[in-house]
Amino acid sequence: MKKRIIATVCLLVSACMLMVGCSSNTVAKETTAAATTAAATEAAATEAGALKTGLAILTTTTGSKDAGEKDGLTQAYTTVAAVTLNGETITSCVIDAVQAKVNFDATGKITSELTDSVKTKVQLGDEYGMRKASAIGKEWNEQAAAFSAYVTGKTVADVNGIAVTEEGKATDADLTASVTVKLGAFKEIFAKIAE
User: Fold this and answer.
1) How far apart are CA 33 and CA 133, in angstroms?
2) What pLDDT does residue 159 have?
3) What Rg value do the Cα atoms of the chain yield, rounded?
4) How far apart are CA 189 and CA 160, in angstroms?
5) What percent of the chain has pLDDT over 70?
6) Closest Cα partner for 194 from 95, 97, 89?
7) Rounded to two decimals, what is the model's pTM?
8) Who has greater pLDDT, 34 or 184?
9) What is residue 41's predicted lDDT score, i.e. its pLDDT?
């Protein structure tokens, strides 16, 4: 009886191995064919200058301050850009930023309300309050949109080559008519997308 069970198990295992071997050949052939087709499609798309999207995030803490007579501040300033390229040419660009701040006193106790949600600058719109301080009367989200429109049709190298003052503001008259914010983060984020 044991011999019969062992023989049956061996027969079943052999049959399974035979089926797996046959299906592996089929799967291997299908996988090879699919990989060849994908490679050909990718090569054709590359030749045609297919669209690709780059996403980059840049975070700095340069606005942070130690506590002294006044509360201290830790600030994470994050700029995000999504850029679509057709070959080397920028076809669309979306830029946003978050300025997340947490205050603390000299003992290290957090004095900010930690349950508040933090809106992006685009979400804030007029609430951000740049319009009243802007020489051109434009809010941050409007300037980011204007910058995005300005770089559309240019290359990443063109964006990285935008001339700026020592303060980091654009020198080009066409650009300064609609964008007076510092461009350091914008240009740095484009450099990351190009990597």
Assistant:
1) 61
2) 93
3) 29
4) 9
5) 75
6) 89
7) 0.70
8) 184
9) 43
Amino acid at 3: K
- 42, amino acid identity: E
105 within 8 A of 169, measured Cβ to Cβ: no
SS3 of residue 36 by DSSP: helix
H-only helix segments in the chain = 2-47, 121-124, 140-151, 156-160, 173-176, 184-194
Give residue-wise pLDDT tens across range 145-191. Answer: 999 999 999 999 999 999 999 999 999 999 999 999 999 899 888 88
CB atoms within 10 A of CB 156: 21
Residue 72: what residue type?
A: G
- 35-37-40-41 Cα dihedral, nearest 10 degrees: -110
Indicate if the pLDDT at residue 195 is higher than 80: no
Residue type, 154: K
For residue 54, CA distances in Å to 66, 95, 151 come to 36, 12, 14
What is the distance between the alpha carbons of residues 164 and 182, in angstroms, rounded to a whole number? 9
Distance of alpha carbon 186 from alpha carbon 183, whole angstroms: 5
**DSSP secondary structure letter of residue 167:** T
